Each structure stands twice: as structure tokens, then as C-alpha cells.
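hey so u asked for the seq, here:
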Amino acid sequence: SAVPSFPVAIEMFENKFGKIELDGKTIMLVGPVTKELPERLAREYPNSKIIAVNPVFNTSEVGNIFYIGDLIQNIQRMSEFKQDILVVTKFSKVHWDMRERKVTLPTLLEQYECEGIEVDRILTSHIHQQDALEELHRSIPDARFIDHDQAEKDLGFLQRFPLIVAFGGDDNLKFVSQRLQGGFLLGINSDPRNSEGALASDTVESFPQTLRKLERGEFKIQEWPRLQISINGTTLPPACSEIYIGDRENIFTARARATLGKTEFPIKGSGMIIANGAGSTGWFRAASLFLFLEN
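ran it, C-alpha cells below
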């Protein structure tokens, strides 16, 4: 397709390399504008396989002609799609504690030992998360990666991406969800060996397959209702899973009156947890486990 006509291309080839026999061979045409040339060659060389590659064609087989088109489009869209992914990563406990305590890793491990903390388990989880993050970088090198601090600085930045990946655990997915006005959110568990991940159920091992399904449109959208709350007329960001209402200082008993529909009832205790479906397996379940044993 880079020369004026196919016969001219054959003549140029034969002048340089000698006579060639096309019948019974595989002939690939890259970028033919129309199907005229593939069809003509198919008639002239009925024992040959004619492969015509152009994104404008639908991938199909017609006689001895193989058209390859939308597969090329898929490759192009996949490249563009990966650039439209934003990954919000969490800090591992080791990273978080090093930052908050302003210490090096050896010093932090010494502090863990003195505090009776399971150093091996925490350090192993930290290594697993770092390995998983590196693998994710390799899977989508064109994607944008930011951490919690960067996400907090510019909430509008998150709204620009059609797909947000929350890399971490359930709490990280909740963190990201609370800062999104809408859109598509996918959770990847950064350490499935040590964290179950009820909400962030994907893994770095399964993510390449997930990505291919997303590109092909082989997915279903699961709409999650979030919880909205306002305090004295000020609306707060939506919560992904639960809202807690209680005193800031938990040494005091929380006292309030609540209205649900037309029913009003008193609240007296450590506070009140309001959860939706996404929050039914977390704090709400732990707090109410022995209240609903019969059911």
C-alpha cells in the first residue's frame, strides 16, 4: 500500500529478489483503502490466503480473504483507555508509621519490637503491597498514579478520569468513593493474602483480564447507593458505606433524638451507625453481631 499499485510493488520486489510465485502463498495487504485490491487478488490467486489489514474493516473471513480491522481499533483504544485510568494508592502501615513518626525503617522496626507488634506480619504485608504496586505499574504503565495526599490536594483532578482504581483495601476504596462525584470505581486488593477485601475484590493477578473485559465492554455496572448527610444546613461529602453519629470524646454517653420517617426514637449509648449495603459487612456488622443472632 506504500506504492501506487500492487503490480508495481511486485515488479519492484522481483527486480531485487527474483521471480516469486504468489499462488498458494499468504499475501498481506497493510492499509488498503478499499476492498477492491483484496477481492481482485483473491480471484487471481484462488489458492492463496489474502490478509487485508485496515482499522476501517470489520474483522471477518470472506472466501480466501481475511479482513482484520476492529482488532486494530481495539489495540488503539486499549492504548488510549489505559491513559484514562487514575490509580489512587494507599500507604502501607510501614510507610504511614515512618512518615508519622519521622523515623527510618530500621528505627521503626525497633519501635515495633519494643511495642510488642508483630513485625514479621506487618513487614511481609508491606513487601506484598510494594510488589503488587510494581506489578500494577507494569500492567498499566500509561496510567496516572497518585497517593492519598495528592488526591486530597485537588479533588477536581479525580473527576477528570473515566475510570478510578482504588489500590489498597476496603478503607481505601471508601476514601476514594467519598471524594468522587460519580463515575466508575474499581477496587484492587493490594494484599489479598492478609486482607479479605469485601469491596476491593480484584487483584493485580486478575486485573489484566479485567482490563481486557473493560475494553471489550464485557462488564456490568453495579450502582451503589451512598449516604448523604448534612449538619446545620451544610452538606458533607457522600459516604460509601457508613456514617457514625456520636460524641467526639467517647468518654461521654451520646444522647440524641432521631426520626425515621414518622417514627421518633431516643439515642443513648456510644452513638449510632447508619450503614448501606456496602457497609453491612464492616463496622456495622461487628457492632450489631449479637443483636440479630436469631435472623
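DSSP finds eleven helices and 14 strands in the chain. The radius of gyration is 29 Å.
lmk if thats what u needed
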